[in-house]
Each structure stands twice: as structure tokens, then as C-alpha cells.
Amino acid sequence: MILGVSELLRLVREKKLVENLADRELTNPEGADFDLRIGALYRVKGKGVLGVDERETPTMEEIASYSSEENRSVTLEPNVYYVMKTIERVNTPKDIAILFRPRSTLYRSGIALFTGNVSPGYVGELNFGIINLRDEPFTLEMVLARPLLIVANGKEVEQPPMAKKNKSSSLSK
User: Fold this and answer.
1) Which keywords are on file for this protein (predicted)?
2) Measured at the alpha carbon of residue 47, what is the angle toward residues 82 and 110, in degrees to the nearest 5?
């Protein structure tokens, strides 16, 4: 089941579920999730290999980092892949998984955010991929690239009533 905002805030206070949340998220979060912020942005360079016997991760060149002293913006160049690290860290209990979804403003702007899930028991930083799929630059404030944090406990998540009634997508009609 998806946890509500009061339960999420309780877990933040009592279990440090998410560390370094913005004040707004602690006092007035939207819905049943938290917005996360960019702590550092890296341009991915060089080749990569993921094989059975060989692994090589491309190098990361830091191009911007968050500063509480100034409001920084960064420009995502067209068709360039970046990795972003969040300011926030998580301390995930063993009965909770964390799922991420991008803000709709990002995908409406042609920006794709690559996220994963956080497994129960994971403790640490969060990294996401981000790419500008448009042919024009896109400017982003360091504090505004927000993957939404959605938390579910170990129970099966029920489908919303509309998904149960209408299995076909309106986009396929």
C-alpha cells in the first residue's frame, strides 16, 4: 500500500527515512510523496561495458553542485545524458520499498528521468539519470529537478479502481 503523508513524516522523524529534506517537504508536502533535489550533476563521459566478466563504468565529470548560498541553474544540452545525485539520503526499513516517478513538468518538457527502486534495507545516496530529449537546451534550477518519492510497505499495492475497470489505455484508441 502507498503510505500517506502523515505516515511518511512520522517515518522521517522517528526512523530518518529520508535525511536532508527541504523545509517545505517537512512542513507542507504535496500528496503522498516528497520532492527530492539535485545535489550534484555529472556529465557522463567515455565508454561503458556491462558484461559477465567485464564491467566498466563511464567516468563522471561534475558540472554543477548545489549551494545553499546561491540559487544555481544548470542547462541540460540537447541529447546529452547526465547523472544527478540528490541532496537527500535514505534509510529504508526492511519492510519498505521506495519507488520514484518524475514530475510531469519534466516529461512535458522533453526531459527523461531514469529512476530505479530502492530495496528494503538500503541506506545511502540516490542517483538518477536525466537526459534532454529535445533539440533545444533546457534550464533547470538545481533544487527543482524533482523525482517524486513514493513509499510502499511490503504488502501488495492495490490497483486504483479505474485501472481495474478499464484495462485499455485511452492513448491506444
Assistant:
1) Hydrolase, Nucleotide metabolism
2) 30
d(CA 8, CA 26): 10
Whether 43 contacts 60, CB under 8 Å = yes
| 160 located within any domain | no
Nearest alpha carbon to residue 64 among 88, 41, 87:
41
Number of domains in the chain: 1
Q: Which of 59, 81, 77, 68 is nearest to 22 (CA)?
A: 68
pTM for the model stands at 0.77
Q: Is residue 91 part of a domain?
A: yes
Domain containing 14 — which CATH number? Answer: 2.70.40.10
Quote the domain boundaries for residue 21.
Answer: 5-47+59-154
Residue 23 lies in a domain: yes
Instruction: Show the CA angle centred on residue 93, arms to residues 88 and 99, nearest 5°.
Output: 60
